[in-house]
Every structure is written in structure tokens, then in C-alpha cells.
Amino acid sequence: MQYKKDELKNTILQNAENEFFEKGFQNASLRQIAKLSNTTIGNLYHYFESKEALFEALVGQEYQGFLFFINNHGNIEAPNQAWETRDIGIWRRLLREFIQKVSPVFTKRFYLLVSRSQGTRYETVRTAFISFMEEHFLEHLRETKTHCAEEMGKIISEQLLASLLTIIRDYSDETKKSELIAETLLFTLIGAMGILED
């Protein structure tokens, strides 16, 4: 029956997500995933030809979302004039709206993609994300002709990513997670704006 096959496939995916989340790609065990899914390792291979294929099934869509976010972030940002205000309440509202638009990016599977993908073709995504954020920061430095150590771009980007990953890892409630991500972005923006205005 197709229903039972789909149900088992979804069970395998859920257990694989948890296994990769806890142990990372390299240390995850297909035997453990099969055992937790109440199936055999041979049957698991019927659905996924390798550990790489199973990981791909989990993070492939998140990777496409990540690429979309990188390539289209300018289209989903608030109009520049909205950021010209000093009203933190307006910034908070804009950031929460922004997070709602991109919330599919900040999932447990995004965590796998960025933090648990060593040994896969995705192991450079973390570096790519940091490079993107660093370039974004440096772009604002150039626009404002601010004199600031360029290395701050990487430092701020590393800190921001570490904060986002901590929120994704530690909070499962979507409302709380969105709120904390918005507050983290707000905190980072305020700090960056302080540097840019100095």
C-alpha cells in the first residue's frame, strides 16, 4: 500500500533528522535510524540509496531556500526609508515582519545544513553564509564611508550565525523562535549602526 510506504518514508526522515541533529552527518548511524523507524537497514536502502541521499532528502529544500534568501534578500527587505527612523519599536515590527517572510529558512533542517553537514557536499554552506553576511556589512561600511576595521564584518557575521543556530537548536516553539531571531537581528543592527555612525 502506498500509504504505508509514505508513512514509513516519513518516519525514516523524522528519525534521520533527529539522528543527524544529535550526532552530525559523519557520526550518524543508518542502523540506528532503521531501528528507530522499526525497519531493517535493507528496507531503509529501498527508500534512500545512501546516507548522503538521506541527508540530501532532509536538507535539499533548505539549501534551495538558503540560495533564494541569499539571491533575493534585497527584495524582501523593508524600504530604506523605513530604517531611517530612530524608533526601535518600528525596527522591531519590521524585523518581525521580515522574519515571517523568511521563517522557512530558520528551521531545524537549516541547522543541519549549516552546522551538521561536515562530510557532505554542503559542508561549505556555513562559510558561504558568513561570507554573505560579511560582504553585506562591508557594503554598508562602503556606502556610509565609515572607518571601521573590515575584520569586524566577519566577527559580527560569526556571532550572528552562532546566535541564530543557538535559537534554532534550543527553541522549538515557532512564535518564541521568531521573536528571539528578530530580537537578535535588532540587537546586531543597533550595534552595527553604532559602529557605522561613529
How would you describe this structure to a colleague?
The chain has 198 residues and is mainly alpha-helical. α1 packs parallel to α6, α7 packs across α8 and α8 runs antiparallel to α9. It is elongated.
Question: What's a concise summary of this model?
Answer:
By secondary structure, the protein is mainly alpha-helical. The protein has helices at residues 2-27, 30-36, 41-47, 51-76, 88-102, 108-115, 125-144, 151-170, 174-197.
How much of the sequence lies in strands comes to under 5%
Helix tally equals 9
From N to C, what is the helix and strand string?
A: HHHHHHHHH
Poorly predicted spans: none
The biggest sheet amounts to: none
Instruction: Report the C-alpha radius of gyration, rounded.
Output: 20 Å
- Give the helix proportion (percent range): over 70%
Structural class: mainly alpha
The number of strands is 0
- Could you tell me the mean pLDDT? 83
Distance between the termini: 66 Å
Query: So what's the overall shape?
Result: elongated
**Number of folding domains?**
2
Outline the fold blueprint.
Layout: H1 2-27, H2 30-36, H3 41-47, H4 51-76, H5 88-102, H6 108-115, H7 125-144, H8 151-170, H9 174-197
Helix pairs in contact: 1-2, 1-4, 1-6, 4-6, 5-9, 7-8, 8-9
